[in-house]
Amino acid sequence: MKFAKWVLPLVLLALVSAQTKADDYSMQCKSGNQALNMLTDVIFVRPAGVVGLLAGSVLFVGLSPLTALANIPEPHNAFDRVGTVLVGIPYGYTFVRPLGYFPASC
Question: Which pTM was predicted?
Fold first, then answer.
């Protein structure tokens, strides 16, 4: 039982430490083959991002009646949250992210 009292605080501490480390990345991530990253980004990733953005937009419009129902109780931010997930994230990944920059590979 004594062991169980220490597990949750240690796990929470590890999660906070991991999040702090994750927020510390630099936008100047350099990889060994930057030209290949840029080419892969232009040929495969950006078109897939446009398809994801279009699919998310269609889903957002299709789910808007359900989102309106979810928007009734407090805090009245269902449209913001659903729009961010279905439209905002694909938009940012496709059009805002620098060319050839893949945060998962840094």
Answer: 0.65
